[in-house]
Amino acid sequence: MTMRAVIVLSATLIAGACRPVIRQNAAVPVPVPEQWATATTEPSAEFPDWRELFGDPQLASLIDEALEANPDIDAAAARLDRSLAQARIAGADLYPQVNANFDAARRKQNFIGLPIPGAEDRVLSNTSTTFATGLNVSWEADLWGRIRSGQTAARADAAAVSEDLDAARLSLSGQVARLWFSVLESQQQMQLASETRTNRRETADLVRRRYEAGLTSAVEVRLAESNTSAAEARLELRRRQLDSARRQLEILLGRYPTAAIEGGSLPTPGRVIPAGVPATVLARRPDLRAAERRALAASARVAQARASLYPQLRLTASGGTSTNELRNLLDGDFSVWSIMSNLVQPIFQGGRLRAGIDAASAGEREVLAVFASTALQAFAEVESALFADDALARQERALAAAADHAREAQRSAEQRYTAGLAEYLSVLESQRQAFEIESQLLDARRQRLIARVDLYLALGGDAREPDPELTVSEDVE
Hints:
Elements: H1 3-17, H2 50-54, H3 57-69, H4 71-91, E1 97-111, E2 124-141, H5 146-212, H6 218-252, H7 278-284, H8 286-307, E3 312-323, E4 335-344, H9 352-418, H10 424-458
Antiparallel strand pairs: 1-2, 2-3, 3-4
C-alpha cells in the first residue's frame, strides 16, 4: 500500500471515529412552576409595546430618540460588530489558506580555495539573478472538530453579545420611562407646592388681618408666617428635583442637559400586562438568552479542548516557476512544485492539554451556575413586580380617598377659622395633612407607573426575535 493510500485511509477512519458533542440547549437547573404565584391575569402570549402600555405618544417618541442617540447603545453595537468579526476569524481555519508570492534575488558568490589554473593570484566570483513566483496552499483537516468547536464557541459568544445589545436597549427604554415619569411627577409636585405656597400666603394675610383687628394672638401670626416660609422652601426643593430629573433624562436622550424638556401630567398605567407563564420568560428575556448562549459557548470550548488531545493533520502544497530571466516566469518549462503532509500527535505537554480541558469544564460549570442565578433573579423580578403592581393600585386608591377627605377637611377648617369658629391650629394641621397626602398620592402614582415598567422589563419587554444570522445550531452535533 502506498503512503498516499495510508494517509487517505487513516484520515477517513479518524474522521468517522470521533466527533465533538456539544449541548445546544442546557437544561434549566432551577425549578420552573406552571404559573406565577402572584399572577392576577390569565396567561397570554400577547404583549403590548410602549405606545400601548401607557398611551403616552411622547414617551414612545423619547424612547425612540434614546435608542438612536444614546452613546451606550452605540458602544454595545460596536461590541457586537467586534464579536461578529472574531467569529469570522475563528472559522477561517476551516478553509485552505492560499498565499501568492513573488521573489527576486541577486547574488554574488566567491570561489575561494578552488585550484583554477591561471587564477591563483585572484578571487574568482560569480553573480546570478533569480526570479520566482508561485502559490502556497496550506490546510488543516479538522478531523476531531477542534476548529469547528472554536467557531461554534465564537458564534455563540457573538449571539450572546447580540442579546446583550437587546438587553441594553430594553434597559435604556426602561430608564427613559422611569425618568420621564419622574419629570412628570416633579412638575406636578412643583405645581402642588406652588399652589400650597399661594394658599399659605392667603392664610397668613387672613391671620394678620385678624391680629390687627385684635381677634387673634401674635403666636398665630408667627405660625402662619412660618408655614408660608416652609411652603417657599418646599417649592424650591421641588424646582431642584425637577431640574435634576430633566437633565438626567436629556443625558439618556443624547442631548445636551439644558433641563428644557417639558411634559404634561402622569398618565394612567393602562391595561394590565399579560404575565404569561414562567417558562415564557426564559425565551423572552434577552439576558437569559445571552446566558444560555454563553453556556453553549462554554460547552463548545470543552469539546475544543478535548479535540486538542488528538492528532492534527496538515497539508501544504506550493507551485510556481523559478528562473534567472524575468521573461521566463510564465514559461511552464521552469515550473516547480511541492506537496507535503504532516500528522502530529501530542505526547507530552507537561499537563497543559489536560489542564486546558479542566479549565474549560470549570468554565462550563460557572456559566451554568450563572444561568441558574440569572433565571432565579428573573423569576423574582417578575413576582415582585406583579405584587407591587397590585399593591400600589390599592395604595393609590386609598390615598385618592384620603386626599378627597383631607381637601374637604382643609376647606371646612379654613371656613370655620374665617368665621371665628375654630382655632388656627386646626387650620394649620388640616393644611399640612392635605398637602402631605396630595404629595404622597402623586408619588404613589409615579411608583405604580414605574412598577408597571419594571413588570414590562421583567417579562422581557419588546424583546426581538434572535438574529437568524447568529444561529449556532448548524455547527452543533
